[in-house]
Design a protein that fits this description.
single chain; 399 residues; five-stranded antiparallel beta sheet; 15 helices; 15% strand; globular; disordered N terminus
């Protein structure tokens, strides 16, 4: 008897293959039943955004059970960090969500700065805001391209998204020396200051982005196929989202007004005027629209930051000695609003050069836990787009 089903479920055949799809028959009172099919989607399935598997049980095309299976990409990130210096772990954070290395760096630096009581100069704070909001544009733009690609729109939307992504990655490469694994933040500031030429490049990209978003929305937002496939699909209630610890665009698409940039006002986010977009229905379409609107708010933040950008000042606290760095004994939890949700680092120091405890609160992992709840009762084809709208990166899920 399969552990997935109740006592009324019996194997459909006496002999079944050890591996591969297995079928089960649920017998009704009149001995007329329907076939349940258990299939594995992944770990190589192109829809799963990394090395990830879903065990799905189907009644026809309807999902009756779904189990996410991860761990294929486990790299021992936290244990490695407990045997490395504080600064030595900074480039490892790049490998968590490799679309968002700048925000990964910031979350870790924020936690260490809280632990050690480090002040960050004003110029460095503005640079961090610029890098973080450019990262949000990269993440949301690519997510929409991938999600629509999962729906079957092969080509145009994804190519448009990657065209804009490349312009921002060019900026990251000019500033940090790398397009994706930036290793840019430092405790008390950033590694390299911005030159006037870099600021000009950022300004050009930011000024152009609203026109791209208009183009993107003209292509997608009122598209009949997109609306039909996304509206009413994968609904996540406000209550379940809160009780499950969901954060980021997933939470706000369910109508919960919670953004750490507004709640904690970390960095200098309290200096900027921006709104927090919310959804009404908590379905895939709301998750799409919330991300589009968040990109427009990011552009507003970027324009304000560029206008207010200090003409002088330190890009890193000169009193912080990164070599042989030893924060005082204690513990701290630093969190930020990463593009996928609450990204936090919990650190415990005993006064040595390595953290005694290092733990990552990864939004991709937490947001993935309610995948089954959103998929039950949906068609198997809808599972792909529901997963795509969650926006996971397996480097962050498995760590």
């Amino acid at each position: 008897m399969s552990p997935l089903f109740s006592e009324s479920v019996e194997p459909a055949a006496a002999e079944q293959p050890l591996y591969g799809p297995r079928s089960y028959q649920v017998m009704s009172g009149n001995d007329l039943g329907s076939q349940l099919l258990e299939i594995s989607m992944g770990p190589q399935h192109p829809s799963t955004h990394g090395v990830f598997r879903m065990d799905v049980v189907l009644d026809g095309e309807e999902v009756v059970k779904l189990k996410p299976v991860f761990g294929y990409l486990h790299r021992n990130h936290e244990q490695i960090a407990e045997k490395a210096s504080y600064l030595g772990s900074m480039p490892y954070t790049d490998r968590l969500d490799y679309f968002c290395s700048m925000t990964n760096n910031w979350a870790y630096a924020h936690a260490v700065e809280k632990l050690a009581g480090i002040e960050v100069p004003e110029r460095a704070q503005y640079i961090r805001i610029l890098m973080a909001e450019l990262t949000r544009l990269v993440n949301h733009t690519c997510l929409i391209g991938f999600m629509v690609n999962d729906l079957g729109a092969l080509g145009t939307p994804l190519i448009y998204a990657f065209r804009e992504r490349e312009k921002i990655l060019d900026i990251f490469e000019a500033i940090a020396g790398s397009r994706m694994m930036c290793n840019y933040m430092r405790f008390g500031g950033v590694r390299v200051d911005l030159t006037p030429a870099m600021l000009k490049s950022i300004t050009e990209v930011v000024d152009r982005y609203p026109y791209f978003l208009d183009e993107f929305e003209t292509l997608l937002t009122a598209n009949e196929i997109l609306m039909t496939r996304c509206q009413g699909v994968g609904v996540l209630s406000k209550e379940l989202a809160i009780n499950s610890g969901i954060t980021g665009p997933m939470l706000r698409a369910s109508g919960v007004d919670y953004d750490i940039r507004k709640v904690d006002k970390y960095g200098i986010y309290d200096r900027f005027d921006f709104r927090v977009p919310l959804g009404d229905h908590g379905d895939v379409y709301d998750r799409y629209m919330v991300r589009v609107l968040e990109m427009r708010e990011s552009v507003k933040i970027l324009k304000q930051a560029l206008k207010q950008f200090p003409q002088g000042g330190d890009f890193i606290n000169p009193n912080v000695k990164l070599r042989n760095f030893r924060p005082k004994a204690g513990e701290a939890y630093g969190r930020i609003e990463s593009p996928k949700g609450e990204l936090g680092f919990y650190l415990v120091s005993t006064g040595g050069t390595m953290p005694y405890r290092y733990h990552v609160r990864a939004p991709s992992f937490i947001n993935l836990t309610i995948l089954e709840d959103m998929c039950i009762g949906q068609k198997v084809a809808d599972v792909i787009v529901i997963l795509g709208a969650v926006d996971i990166v397996l480097g962050e899920v498995d760590r």
